[in-house]
TrEMBL record:
HAMAP family: NadE_glutamine_dep. ATP binds at G287, L288, S289, G290, G291, I292, D293, S294, T394. PROSITE patterns: CN_HYDROLASE. This is Glutamine-dependent NAD(+) synthetase. Deamido-NAD(+) binds at N370, E399, K518.
Amino acid sequence: MAVIRLALAQHDFPVGAVAANTAKVRNLMAQARAGGAALAVFPELTISGYPPEDLLLRPSFLASCQKAIQALAAETNGLTAIVGFPHSQGEVYNAAAFLQGGEIEQITHKQALPNYGVFDDKRYFRAGRTSAIAVIDGVRVGYLICEDIWQAEPAAHAAAAGAELIVVINASPWDDAKQAAREEVLVTRARETGCALVYLNLVGGQDEVVYDGGSLMVNGDGTIAARAPAFVDALLWADFDSADRSLHARDWPAVADGSRQATLYAALVRGIRDYIDKNGFGGVLLGLSGGIDSALTLALAVDALGPDRVTAVMMPMRYTSQLSLDGARTQAERLGVAYHVIDIEPTYNAFIAALTPLFEGKQPDITEENLQSRTRGVMLMALSNKHSRLLLATGNKSEMAVGYATLYGDMCGAYAPLKDVYKTEVYRLSRWRNEDEARTTGHAGDWIIPPAVIERPPSAELRDNQTDQDSLPPYDELDAILARFIEQEQSQAEIIAAGFDEKTVHRVVRLVLVNEFKRRQSAPGPRVTTRAFGRERRYPITSGWK
């Protein structure tokens, strides 16, 4: 019987950054060697980053990844490593290289290729056929790639070949239901096979997807040995004892707050930070309206980037309330961000004057309301261009779902942090952030988002005494219908049967279906639910299905 030490690299490996990723692996391998690890483990497609998408169609990119894995293999004397990379053999495979003794000792290919949700593996990869087994200091180790563990056969084949420990390397995106599903699958596989399981996951934001890490270890009897924190980069140390097939974490980072709101907030912060930093922007800009959506977006941006990299702009007009003016200024001052006020009334009036001859004979309607929003959009985009600060859109998923947003107005922006966050969740996150601030400072009244902004009735403030509920059902009702129709794919009949008003259901569903064209033009934002708009939920714009 033997005990081996593992070093698990729960880290970010950005897409396309082959040289930087290789250097990072080299550095982490050195740390693992210095710490006495027998095996260092790295995530799925470490070298290329995940998902590399159509970069995989470029021979030069594949050749660069192959050269990198060969270079790393030459540096493994005294250490064994499992590293993910795209393996090209005429056809391309999602592969894991087993590096040992200065050589690429083995290569295994991902067997189960996901082609649902955000995954397009079958577009790029061919499926592997066998589960690999290797020996490390007398311990028989099987190693699989991500989706393989969600199917029974790959783990069963590894166990049948004599594996005592199965290592699974992953690039598994986070959503608010994912961790429970992972644990259930891993416990099931451990009990089926009798093998201990190490589940190492990527961490970081990549366009519309966020990876949480959240790595897990499960003992051979199916008990959870350890859980790594979400959205934390760490080299995780662990020991595997083959005598009882148990795993033991060594000083893993503690989870300060494992609540749903805390994890979701961390996901949004990580999404913002990585999108801005990986795309080389110095900072962000946003319209701060005095409403809850922009207030939460501001808090997220400051937590992600720091106040020096965030600019807020209030753009009042005749319908802007004093509550909005006070709330925006108070929050901007509290968070220490650059804050500017631009009165849009003169610009709006100039637009109206120019258009009046062509509006003759028509009564004012939503056109004039949208023009206010588009005036603000023009201002913000000009500031974004001039100051090289990426513009954040502040709309939420409820609004995106029913089209309660203005193209080229409040939808302007290069990144939308709340795009996959329902309005009711916006309220929960805002209250959680204030509670967290009070806990952190020890002062019960401390806040990050003005309480008056949270408690006020939501309003676009595009006409006198306007509220969102003039046009939409109450958000509790709206979001419940949307979740059933979008996440659960329930029919209108099923939603009505669950107790919702028939006319309201028909109206909400119609709004979702007819506003697909708007969502196609919206900014990307972090996917945090099980059915995000964008690369996951792909409905046709032109459709006869109602």
